[in-house]
Amino acid sequence: MQRAYTVSQTSIRLKGKAVPGAEDRQRLIPGFDQAAFSKASVCCVGAGGIISHIAPTLIRKGIGKLMLLDRDIVEPSNLNRQRFYEKDVGKNKALALTENLQRECIAATEITGLALRLEEAIDRRIDLSCDAAICGVDNNPARVAASRFFRTQGIPVIFAAVSRGGDHGYVFVQDRHGPCIACLFPDMTDDDRYPCPGTPAIADILQAVGALAAYSVDTLLMARARAWNYRRISLADGALDGAAMVPDRQGCRMFAPESNEHC
């Protein structure tokens, strides 16, 4: 394993070790292109509950590069569902998750952790270029920032979220063009609220939504089928599950007219 810290200590970059033969079985999956996956890079906005159930899958499938952005600190209450351990309490989530993921690598994946919010990384002009982004935060201001930033960069972004009750969640794929997250949730652009500390959270729904998000990454990088851009799942009632191809919404306010961007 190779290890390297930046001087600022607000970021960390590690590299995994390739394990010969570890990819053999997934190479047999119809439509799965290991070469494309191993060359690809993914940027994760957030390093907490949802990303903790997506990033390890990407790592174990041999993604080429993975970047994690999060300013939050690991707390004891995170340990029931996030990829952290007692030793990580008090550490920055992005940096701690980067370290924990390194041991799970099956390929020479380059993992970068930044102790910054997406908005801060954008303000600092940090290079966030990637083949796909995943937004796994729990607040709408950051979701709006992700939608706008990655659309202007021509990068698809996957949004994943779960309910406060821990029984349902959704995944929405905002591609390079076409419908955005506000076409699905019109009120999102005007919502500046952040969740209160101590919001209920549990692992099972995160695992289910995380699986859908990880699969969505494949569909953006290779020829794995996906006949939807919005998928919802309920643990309590299968009748509430669903999938749809959300269309452009006329009058969507996500992108200002002067930006020359539209849904």
Strand content: 15-25%
Order of helices and strands: EEHEHEHEHEHEEHHEE
Query: Unreliable segments (pLDDT under 50, ≥5 consecutive)?
Result: 1-8
Distance between the termini: 43 Å
Strand line-up of the largest beta sheet: 1-2-5-4-3-6-7-8-9-10
Please summarize the sheet with the most strands: 10 strands, mixed
Into which percent range does the helicity of residues fall? 10-25%
CATH architecture verdict = 3-Layer(aba) Sandwich
CATH H-tier superfamily? NAD(P)-binding Rossmann-like Domain
Counted by DSSP, the helix tally is: 7
What's the CATH topology label? Rossmann fold
Give a description of the structure:
There is one protein chain. With 263 residues, the chain is an alpha/beta fold. It has one domain: NAD(P)-binding Rossmann-like Domain (Rossmann fold, 3-Layer(aba) Sandwich). It is built from seven helices and ten strands. It has helices at residues 34-39, 55-60, 93-102, 118-123, 140-152, 181-184, 203-221; strands spanning 2-5, 11-15, 41-45, 65-69, 110-114, 132-135, 157-162, 168-174, 230-234, 242-244. Strands 1-2-5-4-3-6-7-8-9-10 form a ten-stranded mixed sheet, sandwiched between helices. The longest helix is centred in the last third of the chain and has 19 residues, at 203-221. The protein is globular, with a radius of gyration of 18 Å. The relative contact order is 0.16.
